[in-house]
Design a protein that fits this description.
The protein is of the alpha+beta class. It has 6 helices and 11 strands. The strands form 3 sheets. It has a 5-stranded antiparallel beta sheet, covered by helices on one side. It has a 3-stranded antiparallel beta sheet with strand order 1-7-6, with helices on one face. It has a 3-stranded antiparallel beta sheet with strand order 8-2-9, with no helix packed on it. It is globular, with a radius of gyration of 19 Å.
């Protein structure tokens, strides 16, 4: 949950009792990501993300996940402008799902929809999309959020399986996290290690056949 909450300040469960009169106005201000220098990436995003970002595998111990490198210094995001805009055509799904997030207390068997109440676009003035209708039921907007987060969770599970297969096949190499664009600065992501995938025959076969074709087709 710590990784999932890196950009969330006060994520709480969405409920009619608490948020019956609240609305969400989502714009193009990504200032909430200004101090995040990397975010998780799903395997289904590789084709789009690799065109504009550096993608590495990071983690600690036996847990490894793909991440998109956004900055080379701690608390630096080179893709967020001074005005809060995003300087790339593709925006990682981890960022796009904000201010919503799923939370689970039972090993991902059930999920609770949460929202970051610190999000500036979260309001009681009727701006944007309401969370609940006059009948007390979730609005179509919230239903679409649930679908998006459900798909994100499925891709997350597939990505976990993909990374486990990489480790089982010994397809990863430790890499030095240095940036050629900023001499003398190393990329750091919460003290985690980073790896690249080398081109052994089993790894090439896996990435060009069943795994990549499966994740990129969804």
């Amino acid at each position: 949950m710590a990784t999932q909450l890196m950009i969330y300040e006060t994520a709480v469960p969405v409920s009619h009792a608490r948020h019956g009169n609240w609305s969400v106005e989502v714009g193009t201000d990504y200032a909430f990501c200004r101090t995040v220098n990397s975010v998780p990436l799903m395997t289904a995003e590789f084709a789009s993300a690799a065109l504009e970002y550096a993608v590495v595998f990071g983690g600690t111990g036996e847990t490894v996940m793909p991440v998109t490198v956004l900055g080379v210094r701690t608390n630096e995001n080179l893709y967020v402008t001074m005005e809060g805009g995003w300087q790339a055509k593709y925006i990682p799904a981890f960022v796009r799902r904000y201010p919503f997030v799923f939370f689970s207390r039972d090993d991902s068997k059930t999920f609770t929809l949460c929202i970051d109440e610190a999000f500036p676009g979260f309001n009681q003035s009727g701006r944007g999309e309401r969370l609940f209708g006059d009948d007390g039921k979730p609005t179509p907007y919230v239903e679409n959020v649930l679908k998006f987060l459900g798909q994100y969770q499925r891709e997350f599970q597939r990505t976990q399986a993909f990374c486990k297969k990489l480790k089982d096949l010994n397809c990863s190499n430790r890499c030095r996290r240095r940036s050629s664009s900023v001499p003398g600065n190393a990329w750091r992501s919460g003290g985690s290690r980073s790896w690249t995938v080398h081109g052994s025959r089993p790894c090439r076969a896996m990435c060009s056949h069943s795994w990549c074709s499966r994740t990129n087709s969804n």
